[in-house]
Specification:
This protein is α+β, with helices and mostly antiparallel strands. Helices cover 23% and strands 24% of the residues. A 6-stranded antiparallel sheet has the order 6-11-7-8-9-10.
Length: 239
């Protein structure tokens, strides 16, 4: 039996939920380390941070594993982003066909427009960070709660903007290129962020949709709870 046999058995046992795990070298032997998937419905995976830490304590993590129960085992856009974040090879299997892929870090960057929404991988804050990064301004990537449901219960954006170099605009200040917009999208607080890119257009990424440029009109304006300007706004390339 190899670690791949154990991983495939895990995927088949939990099908149609996605499963996840790690490839870990423990005492000189490569083994499969099953991890909990914290995603609510199992349609994607959120690997338990506690299980990851336990694997690190037990040995050396060599790769990440998860299953694609419905689709072929080709890495999704979010998978490609996560591969770059982890800096590790990723193995994917389809539990029905037994087909495998292995993908290593290659410098992949997702497009700003049309990216898929995945919590803590390609979400609204990731998009804003990436946009500012292309403008030459590095923003911090805050550690998110393990699940989006935890975030919705206690949104964190309104407690983080100052440490990221932003200051609030006054009621009479006009928006300019690169201003950040904190919004309440049917939630319990400011749970969404976008960036104003001029001409009454906002770049943002709503949950369940692809990232997009949208007219900053009635609904989005009504949802906006705070308008922010970065301390280095004068350095923005397109401003």
């Amino acid at each position: 039996m190899t670690w791949k046999d154990d991983a495939l058995a895990h995927a088949q046992q939990e099908d149609p939920r996605e499963v996840c795990g790690l490839v870990v070298v423990v005492k000189g032997r490569r083994r499969y380390w099953p991890c909990r998937n914290l995603d609510e419905d199992g349609s994607q995976f959120v690997l338990s941070p506690d299980d990851y830490a336990a694997a690190e304590d037990a040995g050396e993590i060599e790769a990440v594993f998860h299953s694609h129960p419905v689709t072929p085992p080709q890495p999704s856009q979010a998978d490609l982003v996560s591969i770059e974040i982890t800096g590790l090879p990723w193995f994917i299997v389809n539990p029905k066909t037994g087909a495998w892929t292995e993908t290593s870090p290659s410098g992949y960057k997702p497009p700003l427009i049309g990216r898929q929404w995945v919590w803590a991988v390609t979400d609204c804050w990731t998009l804003v960070r990436d946009w500012y990064g292309e403008q030459g301004i590095a923003l911090p990537d805050w550690e998110r709660p393990a699940s989006h449901a935890d975030f919705e219960a206690a949104p964190m954006f309104d407690g983080c903007w100052e440490s990221a170099g932003f200051a609030p605009l006054g009621a009479d200040d006009d928006l300019q290129f690169g201003d950040a917009l904190l919004m309440n999208i049917e939630g319990r607080g400011l749970n969404h962020v976008g960036v104003y890119i001029g001409d009454q257009i906002v770049l943002h990424h709503l949950r369940g949709r692809l990232s997009s440029r949208d007219l900053y009109g009635g609904w989005l304006q009504a949802c906006t709870g705070r308008r922010l300007r970065h301390k280095d706004a004068d350095k923005l390339i397109g401003g």
